[in-house]
Design brief:
- The two termini are 44 Å apart.
- The protein is α+β, with helices and mostly antiparallel strands.
- The protein has 2 domains: 246 residues, BirA Bifunctional Protein, domain 2; 90 residues, Anticodon-binding domain (Rossmann fold), CATH 3.40.50.800.
- The strands form 3 sheets. Strands 1-5-6-11-10-9-7-8 form an 8-stranded mixed β-sheet, sandwiched between helices. The protein has a 5-stranded mixed β-sheet with strand order 13-12-14-15-16, with helices on both faces.
- The chain is elongated.
- The structure holds histidyl-adenosine monophosphate.
- Homodimer.
- This is Histidine--tRNA ligase.
Length: 419
């Protein structure tokens, strides 16, 4: 016990689950790299203005959930609540768009939102994200969606649904917004929701309360009010998803909580998770670069929540406990044997054979127990007498069979056996 524990809404990612956490990151990372996405890392905090301008002042994320603080010289800084605004900021700052189009990037890290804590919702959480910056091609929207689907599938996650919508563009959305507002003003809504009708009416469609949803059956839908270009874009995306046999559910009331989206938006929901069911989400944000003072750079991206992906894996009965890899475990009795064993372990690791050993002068019984716990297939047991005879005992931990092997042949013998 310590006097302190991790702050509310944060968590320690402990073994053996932490290995799965890493595996998810590596799985998505390798797959994104194979699709031409390069890794980017941005700071954990940014100028507060970046998120106010980028994510939108009226969003819950900005107005209620940011960890904002002043540093010692009075700057207003904010722990990043999401990744997209910062990635676009970095692209613009370093003029990456001058080199290639689209700039394809992926990232991973902790994000921070002061939210009500519940299962699947924490105040520090980890995302893997991908962004393709500088392309208006609807095929890139489809590439994005396909990559997320592939990532989940490769982890063995299958009980998820893809919700898809279009939010229109700066031409057709305002017209739709006015139409929706007119409809919403005629409903019986509480004061706060009426205020939302005036500021961010599309968010009202997303209201989970049954008394609100019950009144929304006849609400005008964005997908019936798209301009020709947006309708075409959307039809291309749905058509291509059909061709790839990627199932999706049209979700004309899906809005998402960030203001930068236009056209395609999507969310991956998992039905085994309860209220916080979104394991990932994203969409197009064609105007964000301009909002941040840059050129026009139509873009699309997504982020996947690692914690929720792990919950999804657990809900599907997938094994999320991953012990550390170990093929060979060294057991030494006596000081000179310890040194020899350590040299074997180092050489095995250099040969890409996962190896570990007993430390702290453990006695034979304790060391053999640790060998069994490690999951290794072989133990190298070395006592002073073995050493004098120039051999080590190679023990097959499954069968218990033990054979002496000349010291200078130990590494090669193990390499052969473990091929
Ligand atoms: P988001 O939907 O706000 O999108 O977050 C993406 C994912 O992060 C969610 O689907 C969820 O799995 C996870 N997540 C969000 N908040 C929490 C929380 N409090 N606790 C646990 N997990 C959470 C974005 O952040 C956008 N930047 C995605 C994007 C990239 N759009 C375009 N490019």
């Amino acid at each position: 016990m310590s006097t302190f524990s991790a702050p509310r809404g944060t968590f320690d990612m402990l073994p053996p689950y932490s290995e799965t956490f890493n595996r998810i990151r590596i799985q998505f990372g390798l797959e994104l790299r194979d699709a031409g996405y390069q890794y980017i890392e941005t700071p954990a905090f940014e100028d507060t203005g970046l998120f106010v301008r980028g994510v939108g002042e009226s969003t819950d994320v900005v107005s209620k959930e940011m960890y904002t603080f002043q540093d010692r010289s009075g700057r207003s800084l904010t722990l990043r609540p999401e990744g997209t605004a910062a990635v676009v900021r970095a692209v613009l700052q370093h003029n990456l768009q001058a080199q290639r189009h689209p700039v394809k990037l992926w990232y991973f890290g902790p994000y921070f939102r002061y939210e009500a804590v519940q299962a699947g919702r924490t105040r520090q959480f980890h995302q893997i994200g991908a962004e393709a910056i500088g392309s208006a091609d609807p095929l890139v929207d489809v590439e994005m969606i396909a990559l997320a689907v592939e990532g989940f599938q490769k982890l063995g996650v299958s009980d998820f649904r893809l919700l898809l919508n279009s939010l229109g563009c700066k031409e057709c959305r305002p017209v739709y917004r006015a139409k929706l507002q007119e409809f919403l003003r005629g409903l019986d809504l509480d004061e706060e929701t009426r205020r939302r009708v005036e500021i961010n009416p599309l968010r009202v469609l997303d209201d989970k309360r049954p008394e609100v949803q019950a009144q929304l059956d006849d609400a005008p839908l964005i997908t019936d009010n798209l301009c020709e270009a947006c309708a075409e874009h959307h039809a291309f995306v749905t058509g291509m998803l059909d061709e790839l046999k990627i199932a999706y559910e049209p979700a004309p009331k899906l809005v998402r909580g960030l203001d930068y989206y236009v056209r395609t938006i999507f969310e991956f929901v998992h039905d085994g998770l309860g209220a916080q069911s979104a394991i990932g989400g994203g969409g197009r944000y064609d105007g964000l670069a301009q909002d941040l003072g840059g050129p026009e750079l139509p873009s699309v991206g997504w982020a996947v929540g690692i914690g929720r992906t792990m919950l999804a894996m657990e809900a599907e009965g997938l094994d999320i406990e991953m012990p550390a890899d170990c093929d060979v475990y060294g057991v030494a009795l006596g000081e000179s044997a310890r040194r020899e064993i350590f040299k074997f372990v180092t050489a095995l690791r250099l040969a890409d054979i996962p190896a570990d050993m007993a430390f702290d002068h453990k006695k034979l019984k304790g060391a053999m127990k640790a060998a069994a716990q490690s999951g290794a297939r072989y133990a190298i047991v070395l006592g002073e007498r073995d050493l004098a005879e120039g051999v080590a005992q190679l023990k097959d931990l499954a069968t218990g069979e033990q054979t002496p092997v000349a010291l200078d042949a130990v590494v090669d013998t193990l390499k052969e056996k473990l091929q």
